[in-house]
Design a protein that fits this description.
With 216 residues, the chain is of the alpha/beta class. It has one domain: Rossmann fold (3-Layer(aba) Sandwich). It is built from five helices and seven strands. Strands 1, 2, 3, 4, 5, 6 and 7 form a seven-stranded mixed sheet that branches. Strand 6 and strand 7 form a beta hairpin. Helix 2 packs parallel to helix 5. The radius of gyration is 20 Å and the shape is globular.
Amino acid sequence: MVIVLLVAVVIAGCAASRSDMTGLFSLPTEKNFGAEKVSVLFLFRHLEQQHGFDSIPKLKSYWVKDFDNLFNDALTEISNISQYNTFTELPDDVNKPNRRQECEALKGSHDYTLDISFFEESSFKQQCLSGTISILTMTLMPMPYSWDYTITATIFDNNGAMIRSYQRKATLNNWVEALLIFAYPFHPLEGKREQIYAESLHDIFRQIETEKVLKK
């Protein structure tokens, strides 16, 4: 069985694709250059749930590898930020009062908090079935794997009152089959996932800028 698993991994190929994103902002961008500068805390939360296996959404301690670069690039969409901080919630924060206190202090010291969650959902039944068939057929039979992403951004003022909320959704698909090893360099899974993260951040920030939500 170990040999079969190793052979299946070696000869497996994959090709990823993604759906169009729903909820995109449809109006032209209007820059907010004349607005008074504000300070913002960006609070990030990365969640996952495999339905049929996980009973609740769970915080992840890992996400796309270039997330800092993706965020920094998207931040150029907002023109009236004077200073900002970032804070990412981690699974073990529940046992770290210093981390929780740091987060609360950051919220109170900024004009706004932009709470952004990236929620990845998948089906345990689908993943298990596809994985079993891939192994038994040594990846000769093409099998699909899919993940649904919901990106939610909620703006709070420094009193904790909610100002506005935004949401974007997209689906990531990955087909695994031996001959797809030749398609992988053109359709890598991680690259498609980065596209979803980057497009959602850019579009949400662009809508915030156009609607002039961040103001004193």
